[in-house]
Amino acid sequence: MAVHLQALKKQYVAPDGGAVPVIDIADFSLANAEQVALVGGSGSGKTTLLHLIAGILTPDSGRIIFERGGERTGIQAEANSHELMVPTDITLLREAERDVFRGRHIGYIFQTHHLLPGFTALENVMLGMTFTGRKLDSEWATHLLREVGLSDRLNYKPDKLSLGQQQRVAVARALANRPMLVLADEPTGALDVRSAQQVLDLIRSLCTEVGAGLLMVSHDPQLTGQLPRVVELKNLNRAAA
Amino acid sequence: MSDLRRIFSDYGFYVLVVPGIAALLVLLAALFPGKLSLVFKQMRQRALGTALTLLLVMLGVALAVSVFLVLRESGKLFGQSDFGYDVLVGKAGSPLQLTLNTVYHLDVSPGNIPLSACAELLGPQCRPLVKAAVPYAVGDTYQGRYPIVGTLPKLFGYDDAGNLLPEESRIGYRQGHFYGIDGQCFAPDRFQAVIGSEVARREGLRIGSTFQATHGSPKPNETPDIHAEVWTVVGVMKETHTANDRVLFIPLLTFYTIAEHGTGLIEQERLREGEPPPAPEKHEEEEEKHYTVDADGRIHLTLPKNVLAISAILVKSRGGITGQRLIYKINNSTQKLQAVNPAAVMREFFDTFLKSGTTLLIVVAALVSLEAAVSILVSIYNSVAARRREIAILRALGATRRTVVGLICLEAGLIGLFGGIAGVLVGHLVGAVGSVYFERVVGEGIDWVAVGSEEMIYLGAVVLIAVLAGLAPGLKAYRTPVATNLVAG
């Protein structure tokens, strides 16, 4: 799935009532299944941009268009009932529609794992399937946890897992719906170097497995450098320049 | 068929509750895949808070249900219109006191009336209205706990010679239900007794057992005044499920043989005649005996007939309006006697006292239920405040605002449902305790198992109120900003 951002603008209201531009992107595209690193300093609007693409926030103006970008093959083809058949501008969708769209087509990995504490690893992964209208697929959830090396931790709750393991559960959850795009907001920020590398490898390999694109925000040049394309937000976002 | 329908209507709740809940949960799980288990996990996650809220709901519902139960069943108990007789005659005074004392053996007797009144009821003036009349004399107890009643074999359907009377002349305990006796009926002139089934069971009395009467009902720290006379049990009544199961019936004649009774009756008569007050009370051993016993063991009273008194007369009228006519006749012909219809008295008592009291209890129960609903609201509201980040995660995973509100209302509704069902069950257990109390006091328990339609409606209302209580925290969750809470996390 390809994503196109056109004339996208977002500004916040400062405490003094003034407008603070955060995002001002004339044009940006992410090709089908492309893996892109987004780098930039603090406050440059990285997280806001991910929230806009995910439909969590709405832009003040501009378009965010998702379109089908080629045939999916292998495992990911199993989920083609929810394939995007027509280009969709999520800025035109109502909030509830954006929520459903996000649930079905976008996987989100947060900096801190954001797992639900009362749920086991398997339940957390399956939670990602709950709001899509699809049948819950525990086999797929188990497969994902096996892929991230947690097949022996399926029934562990987050407080019984290490930080790295928790983040791996979060990666599995982001892929639970076989999304077309994975947005990762500093997914390795809280991890040591070794764990960070493991998590990045998992994200990339699972995105490849399901045919999903990846837009990853990170401060770590060691990691971002491993992705095929690195985008400096200050070059993209006029508001951050 | 109608019996089956009634049984199902009364007890269907117990049959349907488990499969009903199971079906509801399956339906919810099918309609909202994954969401029901999500709600259960959220409830499990804060198990203590959920358990305490469930407890509050359960207690509120239990209180309300026990009130419903007692109201309904006491209405049946005290609102009964069939005692086997339809007129009570006693000393002029409170109709309620006369009825409670004679029918349920509660309270004290309003006073004595001449035994001759009973004969008059069967005399030519009243005969067209009266089918049967049986005297009752009360005042003594067995061990201070079980009333002793002096009466005639006629109460049990026998004449003085021990022959069974025709049904139309017998007084039963319900229409068409006559007293059955294991053993035999007492002879009218011997120290014999027929005792109620509960007395026999609880006190281990059986045919051949003997007992003495205690004067009145002594208080716990009072020395009981035990009369010298000894009665022998010759019959045990079959269970009637009335207050009479707790009574020991003795021949009326033997009631007068008790020295204090005889002396008391003479002194009362002297007072009525305007003679000077009696001398200070003698000790029992000095009391004069007012009877002799012949070689055959038969008792002969030496008291003058005009002093003999009783507490009440049970009258079976000839049906139709003859009962009302008799009541009118007695109440308008003398100021010393009163005649009442016990069913009408109990109905009035129920409507005047119990119903208004129960209205207050229902208001209290409603307030407690409301308080339980507020507790659901507060509990979930606080949990929503603590779960903002989780709600934001759910939203990020694709849950719409409506879905989040629905999840919270579902959680509130399930707490209402489970707490409510537990409350219904506990309420009926309270009813079971009430039944034991009623059985002890009036000799008749209540059907504490049956679940009335009003309880089902109430349960539905509780679930609905619980769901509505979930709306306030739901609204809070609805307004939870996703981006802010995700970043804050």
Tell me what the structure shows.
The complex is a heterodimer of chains A (241) and B (489). By secondary structure, chain A is of the alpha/beta class. In chain A, 31% of the residues lie in helices and 23% in strands. Chain B is elongated, with a radius of gyration of 32 Å. The model of chain B has no long low-confidence stretch (mean pLDDT 84). In chain B, helix 3 (47-78) runs antiparallel to helix 13. Chain A binds chain B through residues 47-48, 51, 54, 56-57, 95-96, 99-100, 102-104, 108, 110, 112, 114, 116-119, 123, 126-132, 135-136, 173, 177, and chain B through 33-35, 38, 41-42, 44-46, 389-390, 393-403, 482-483, 486-487, 489.
Helix fraction bin of chain A: 25-40%
Strand content of chain A: 15-25%
Oligomer: heterodimer
Read across the widest sheet of chain B, the strand sequence of neighbours is: 3-4-9-6-8-7
What percent of residues of chain B are in strands?
Answer: 5-15%
User: Globular, elongated, flat, extended or rod-shaped: what is the shape of chain B?
Assistant: elongated
Low-confidence spans of chain B: pLDDT under 50, at least 5 residues?
none
Taking the alpha carbons of the first and last residues of chain A, their distance comes to: 29 Å
Largest interface (CB within 8 Å) is between: A-B, 33 and 27 residues
Largest beta sheet of chain B, briefly? 6 strands, mixed, barrel
Structural class of chain A: alpha/beta
Contiguous runs where pLDDT drops below 50 for at least 5 residues of chain A? 73-81
Q: How are helices and strands ordered from N to C of chain A?
A: EEEHEEHEHHHEHEHEH
Radius of gyration of chain B: 32 Å
**How much is the average pLDDT of chain B?**
84
How many alpha or pi helices of chain A? 8
Tertiary shape of chain A: globular
